[in-house]
């Protein structure tokens, strides 16, 4: 068997192991067999003890496992961890760092190869193989170990995370549940929340079902048996109705399904889990996914295929269980934190608004739609917490830190008190900001900066006006499209747009034409692409579908009749041709409506600069349109080649990257050469430090989510334009995003605006 197939087999087997101990045990056994060595061991770094602990071994004394440990400065294992590179020795005992571990019985072994296990740049532990004879492991063996440890790092990190949360339910685990264990994601909406977890379960999606104690075991057993019988009936019905049309071997597939359902191993095991106290849906998830793991790890291709059959049956049974349970009665405490595998805007309705204090999504990022909505309603949110074992957290108390992007489980009383103090500080700042509502955003030397808002929901309007918004810089028209099952008619769109325009009149409202594609697909207009961000999206879609574009523009123009406060904005523009074509369509819609007798006027039309191609044509665009607006979120993503919805790289998404700042300054300068107004809508404008830089660059309007508007206003009122300009010239000489970020925070503190920077958080440098 080749090393590559051995590698695949180990990774596949290990990825389906149920807990950390099984993962580690499997790894050492399989590597020892594959490499034919006498010893394979794993030392994991324990951050609470600051030591490398022997957690699994094949070949050393089993009694030493869990007991023997080394400090990072001790032994060759410590050296591997400190250097974060392999050490390959012919005779370990002659190495100056050698540290004899008495209880292990390792004195007989000479050859030593230790490889670090690294996940997201931090060393989780060290993987070691040893042999009795004096010999150096060859290059292919070392390469195999390095490759394997890279593959296993993520699996170990996930199993370690899961184990530490769940260990109070697993007394056999050697490690006690860690207090104040945290999982890191992406900070999506600032603020701190402490509350009880509610897990959002997707319909018939096994992976998202949480563990819950069964209130009535008999009732759960009955519900499971009824669901099982219902699925049996369904399969028999399909089998009988297709009997004449199917060949006998295809017909036999239905018999396989029925045999699986009759198999006591499946049903009996699920019932045993229910009797042990898990509700029927949780018991089903545990057993079905365990069986899926078993089948997946088999060598026989036919048996591997059975994994998808088992999963399919599990989903069918789950569908009936969910149906019989009726609409999911979500049990909410007064302070509920909603956690989902993938948070969607629709899920926000699962918990009553007055009880929802925090949001966490395992996938997604700070600029996904759910995150944008969370910011608009002011709920602390963390996205992309990929290692969070969310199905095991139902009903548990957690802390959501929307400043640093951390979620804390098993919080200690000291940590809870520290975060309560942060929440008290937040309330004090909110009270201070309340008094600014009717005051202008004016610098100390008299420069007036208009602050507008980004909206998409009717609920945003009241909040925006209460915060003192002077206009709408971005109205996301796709939201009315997203909440329907088909394209809304001209009349439906008209009503939706009119309510926004009326609420803000006479203040300007900038409506972005439909921007679907990328991370925003409509359920009734799916766009399947390998790389949607470089695909069919924004203006590209609507110009290819003039029937959609014209109906939307007509609805906007009619909605503005008599109010005349509409501005139209074209998203994702990359070429002069697109601008010309869109202008033609808008003029056509205007002419049609005037011919039909509507008293509509030509609105201001602008383009959004969101892609690098638009940056370098911005002056030509400015000649053709009435205004230019920068979409800084997308522009940052495209300049840095970072998919902001991918939690693995979301940390590289840096609004203050020097390349992004230079592009923003260039856009403002080029647009002003044509005498056209330039505005910006994006998260950078919502950050007090970012707002000062943009004002200094010459942006004439800043548009942001309503909750951040008072903070930005306070920053502008606390500084002179001249001071902001000197801040900008200093920042443009810096070449590191984090350095810039820190400098902005420091400057705000010097200006007496320290309350606008992130509060000092427990366990973190200020």
From TrEMBL:
EC primary class: transferase
Cofactor: Mg(2+)
EC number: 2.7.3.9
Superkingdom of origin: Bacteria
Main localization category: cytoplasm
Xref: PROSITE patterns: PEP_ENZYMES_2
Gene3D superfamilies (alphabetical): 3.30.450.40, Phosphoenolpyruvate-binding domains (3.20.20.60), Phosphohistidine domain (3.50.30.10), PtsI, HPr-binding domain (1.10.274.10)
Domain GAF: 19-166
Catalytic reaction equation(s): L-histidyl-[protein] + phosphoenolpyruvate = N(pros)-phospho-L-histidyl-[protein] + pyruvate
Similarity section: Belongs to the PEP-utilizing enzyme family.
Protein name, per record: phosphoenolpyruvate--protein phosphotransferase
